[in-house]
Write a structure and sequence with these properties.
single chain, mainly alpha, 24 helices
Length: 482
């Protein structure tokens, strides 16, 4: 457990530092920037680790250096690579958390800091003190997420508590002892999920654009730093996979040999994306209703706790449920358990998105909607949902992209028959077959980039959703406040 805490805190700190420039860039309140920042989160969690790890392959100068060095150098390098790879995946979480706090710093305060003596260092120290709470929250949340991460740390042979549980799950069938061993992680997930749900449930006045004049002199440098971090997270690892391909025909061979695995994963991902979009709409509608907001808060708590729970344990719990005596045997041989496990892993994305969409409605807009159209679902769908339909489609694409790369829970619930992309790539990661791994990752990342780009384009095209704005042909057109 000590090793788990050390690595989780270290990854949380590094990821938060990497996410600070992007978080400050979010003061521009640009949906396009926010969508681009989220792209690394929609990529596989092993992307940066596997891509940068190609540089230490046999025959490379890094590999030769590690081979000639002392016996501890190779494992230490792998541990550092795993931690840095996870940091390059997790920094958008920090950017979103810090960005939400940065947008609430008044522009006039930053303008007054420009007039104070002391130079950029003093201004930066003041801003960091203002962001201290969000920075601490970012380290804590990312640390909790990393405490449940197994794949990159397992590949680097880091003896974390989650890796220990994975080994324990494969050696015992005693359900009581399994859940007893998971109680520490389960308790942390429930407490953290409740805290996050409570923080999200605090009523705040939606932020309106006021012509972002804050700290314009440093905006270009911040954007450059954020772009560098983004490049190290996605384009550079993908370029390394392309560079290490020896034969271009390997890309085609992947589709020819693994079309069944691709088809299975796409079907599962489509179902997961649709369910996550439904969760987003349901949460939005429940929170927009005066009578059902507490139900939405309970759903937010449950899904956040499930999202923070280790994926391997989610998969194991799903498998145990489908193997229960009261369940029909045929159900376990379908893709339904896989879909449910992925929804348990990523359902919080839809619930958070619905919560965010509902929070964009100002008190004046909500009062006008209730007065003119009532508190019914039809009024909400006409005045709130229809203008932001593109955002809902983007959420579904994001769910599809996340499902496509999910490994940790899939390996427990995948039914007999054609394997999934998760199982195929996990085998390549373990056996370090560079050619097959590079071809698979290039293709999977290409598909994931298209999905992530589509999700970002739809959300960015919608811009700031006009929460509960009236459609042009609405009977109350022109009556709701802009």
């Amino acid at each position: 457990m000590i090793t788990t805490v050390e690595y989780s805190v270290a990854i949380g700190l590094v990821a938060t530092v990497l996410g600070l420039p992007a978080g400050w860039a979010l003061r521009r309140r640009s949906a396009v920037i926010a969508a681009l920042i989220c792209v690394p989160l929609l990529m596989p969690i092993y992307l940066a680790y596997a891509g940068w790890g190609l540089l230490r392959g046999p025959g490379s100068w890094v590999g030769d250096m590690l081979g000639r060095g002392p016996h501890w150098l190779g494992p230490a390098f792998d541990h550092c690579l795993a931690a840095c790879g996870l940091s390059l995946w997790a920094w958008p979480i920090a950017a979103l958390i810090v960005g939400a706090s940065a947008r609430r710093i008044p522009s006039h305060l930053l303008d007054s800091l420009d007039l104070e003596p002391g130079g950029p260092c003093k201004r930066a120290s003041v801003v960091l003190r203002l962001l201290a709470g969000s920075i601490g929250a970012s380290v804590l949340i990312i640390g909790l997420v990393m405490a449940g991460s197994a794949i990159p740390l397992q590949l680097a042979q880091v003896d974390t508590y989650t890796v220990h549980l994975c080994v324990y799950l494969s050696l015992t069938t005693n359900t009581a002892s399994i859940w007893g061993a998971t109680l520490p992680l389960l308790g942390m997930a429930l407490i953290a999920g409740g805290a996050l749900a409570h923080a999200a449930g605090k009523e705040r006045t939606p932020i309106r654009d006021e012509g972002d004049t804050a700290n314009r002199r440093h905006s270009r440098g911040v954007l450059v730093l954020a772009a560098v971090v983004w490049g190290l997270s996605v384009p550079v690892p993908m370029g390394l996979f392309v560079w290490h391909l020896r034969w271009w025909v390997s890309l085609w061979n992947f589709w020819k040999n693994e079309y069944q695995a691709v088809g299975t994963s796409l079907w599962v991902g489509a179902a997961v994306g649709i369910i996550i979009a439904i969760l987003a709409m349901a949460t939005w509608a429940l929170r927009a209703s005066v009578k059902s907001s507490k139900v939405a808060r309970g759903g937010l708590w449950a899904t956040l706790a499930a999202g923070l729970f280790p994926g391997t344990l989610v998969g194991s719990a799903t498998l145990a449920f489908w193997n229960a005596p009261f369940m029909p045997r045929a159900a376990g041989d379908t893709l339904v358990p896989v879909v449910l496990a992925h929804v348990a892993r990523f359902g919080f994305i839809g619930v958070l998105a619905g919560w965010w969409m509902a929070s964009l409605e100002t008190p004046d807009e909500r009062g006008a909607r209730l007065m003119l159209a009532g508190d019914g679902v039809r009024a909400w769908a006409a005045l709130c949902l229809r203008p932001a339909a593109g955002v809902v489609v983007g959420i579904a694409l994001a769910g599809l992209a996340l499902s496509l790369h999910e490994i940790e829970s899939t390996i427990y619930v995948q039914p007999p028959g054609p394997s999934s992309l998760a199982q195929y790539i996990l085998d390549k990661l373990h056996y370090n077959r560079d050619e097959d791994l590079c071809a698979a990752c290039v293709n999977v990342l290409a598909v994931g980039t298209v999905l992530a780009g589509g999700a970002g384009w739809l959300i960015g095209r919608a811009g700031r959703p006009r929460a509960c704005s009236e459609p042009p042909d609405s009977p109350v057109s022109g009556m709701l406040p802009e």
